[in-house]
Amino acid sequence: MNDVQQPLYDLAPLLRLMLLGALIALGPLAWVWLRNRRSSPLRRVQALTVLTLFLTFDLVMFGAFTRLTDSGLGCPDWPGCYGNASPVGAHAEISAAQQAMPTGPVTHGKAWVEMIHRYLATSVGVLIIVLTVIAWRQWRRARRSGGDGEGGGSVAAPGPALSPWWPTATLVWVCLQGAFGALTVTMKLFPAIVTLHLIGGIVLLALLCVQAVRQTQAALGTARLPIGSGLRWLLAGTTALLALQVVLGGWVSTNYAVLACTTFPTCHGSWWPDMAFAEGFEIWRPLGMLQDGSNISFAGLTAIHYVHRLAAYVVLAALALLVWRLRRARALPSQARWLAGLALMQFATGLSNVVLDWPLVAAVLHTGGAAALVVVLTWALTSSRAALPGEVADNASLFPPADPVPPSTSTPAPSHGATRISA
Length: 423
Prior knowledge:
The protein is mainly α.
């Protein structure tokens, strides 16, 4: 194949790719400005953050589509495609690679999927740069005006809704994501790197969600909802379990172990099939191989799949308990409804992947559902806080009485319920 002579890193098209990403980002920036041109600066930043969160979620979904269509190596170098800013300039090289291996990793269709993913990622990076610059400008303006720099500036120049270090950390993280994206290509879909790239996208969503919620609360003048410590711990514990499950799911996907079990609820007709855990969870190794150069066994792939499935039962039980508790406590109703619906969707799409031979739509939705669950749980955590003793009697314990006490009248009405996030 011609791509053997192609350097893994070719920075020649880097400037053109950056300019293209900036051009794509102008669309969302213009939309936010036109829609909110008569609004306050705080409202415009809030709208841009929410829109960036939405576009990042779309990017995670498209990343899943790229991986599931085997398009991750559609262009064998980084950041361009055979040293070009688009597959158009690499038409001859792609055609030669496709002719040599028609079903191989490099085809015209896969090259376009891979490059569109890179264009979208670059545009999201540009939007995060804009958010970071705005946050520091607001912080400096608030300091000059005598404000505290975090939601407490003067009337003439209010400070930002949150510390500028939040978007700065997000910018650093998205740069790290770009590095993992490059390694995904240059290390030929190394499972540990691809899994870290997936995890990085989920963390990026969580970082943006925290900022969107905080800015929405500042724009609407709402406070964080006090909930009982038991419910708060359940919310945090469920989030931790989901994070572990996302890592396991990424390991299943990047090792192509989805079809290691094709029956449900048993696997190969057994509740405890033959599994090789040492092989399945040997982390630093090439795709489909072990460190000693031998191929990973089917029992190793089965171990990867079945551990994810067993963990899914625990996560679904935790989500069901959390939704039940939120409904009984009459807290965060929007988040509770989203969690219930997404949990059902995850079960349905996960089951479809197993019994319907891994359909593309179900596989992409399964990744999207996991990402959405992380966003909703982050939304719930950011919108709430642990209540002070006696502040909310109905949330005082993990398992309240059969007839919960009505919400305390001392709780401000605007803060009881979900923070509605909108752009």
